[in-house]
Amino acid sequence: MNQVAPGKPNGPQPMLQTQPGPPPPYFQGQGMPMQVSTNQSQVPGAVSARGQVTWMPRPGGNCSIPGLEYLQQVDQILIMQSFELLEIFTNWECKNKYRITNSMGQQVYFAQEESEVMQRQCCGPARGFTMHITDNMGQEVIRMVRPFKCCAGWQCCACCDGCSMDIAIEAPPGQIVGYVAQECTCCDRRWSVMDAGKNKIFEIRGDCCVCQWICCPKDIPFDILTNDGSGKVGSLAKQWGGMAREMFTNADNYCLSFPIDLDVKLKATLLGGAFLVDFMLFEGQNRQGYGGYGAYH
């Protein structure tokens, strides 16, 4: 007769679940599935020693928009794009995927692009897309929509809606909370950050000099200014990823900083501005030269 060890029940053991239902499909740069961990007792960090993602614990308190509670607690977020081996070896443009973390490395959101195949291959960084941003339960909390405009992109001609690249930010999906639109300038690069009524709140401004971006291995800064450009309230920086990553991929990392007490709607809108800057200036770098200036200069 089989002996049962004391203190251990006989028969198969039930599987413990850390969250209801299966986790959403998160991916590493090589396209391999990444295990998701919701254990909030883990030491903070983007990826644990076992390769599991450590998510930021859901903050308490009230938030005007469900799902944006995470943004209430942070004054800096990191946006890290995954790279695809298919793009490197075949030049076939894939849908972009991003991990969004706080300054401690805990993942806050996951972002994935939805776009048409022909636009990705033929229009490159000028393509229209919808960016779905989900939380650790796989719930979409922010949606960003950038329409395709065949005649837009030239900064000196962005004087009307039809010639200006823009993006609309919805939180929750279906409810617009802000817009970011390219401004008409002759030298430096500027984007207007607007609320739902298209009132300009902030301005994102970048340097007009391209030479230093090409020759210098360093971060590329963008200032977030007040609506009249008189004061700095935050920053966006494209981080230098190393020579190999910069030359052979268009997977970029960004650091977005803003006041911690800023309204979550404006924080979400600034996040949309980071994606717009990425697509307009850096998405086409492995096809059209550094920074995608073959399309937008």
From the structure above, extract its key features.
two-stranded parallel sheet, 8 helices, twelve-stranded antiparallel beta barrel, alpha+beta, globular, disordered C terminus, 297 residues
Description:
The chain has helices at 69-72, 85-90, 117-122, 211-215, 243-248, 264-282, 285-288, 293-296, and strands at 36-37, 53-54, 76-81, 97-102, 107-114, 129-134, 140-146, 166-170, 176-182, 189-195, 200-206, 220-226, 232-239, 253-257. A twelve-stranded antiparallel beta barrel has the order 3-4-5-6-7-8-9-10-11-12-13-14. Strands 1-2 form a two-stranded parallel sheet. Residues 4-9, 11-50 and 285-297 have low confidence and may be disordered. It is an alpha+beta fold. A hairpin with a 4-residue loop joins strand 4 (97-102) and strand 5. The protein has eight helices and 14 strands. The longest helix is centred in the C-terminal third of the chain and has 19 residues, at 264-282. The radius of gyration is 21 Å and the shape is globular.
Average pLDDT over all residues:
76
Which structural class do the helices and strands define? alpha+beta
Low-confidence stretches: 4-9, 11-50, 285-297
Count of helical stretches: 8
Rounded to an integer in angstroms, the radius of gyration calculated over CA atoms is 21 Å
- Strand percentage lies at 25-35%
What is the strand arrangement across the widest sheet? 3-4-5-6-7-8-9-10-11-12-13-14
Give a quick account of the main beta sheet: strands, pairing sense, barrel closure: 12 strands, antiparallel, barrel
SSE string = EEHEHEEHEEEEEEHEEHEHHH
Terminal-residue CA separation: 81 Å
Global geometry:
globular
Helical content class = 10-25%
Give a count of the beta strands, DSSP E runs of length 2 or more: 14
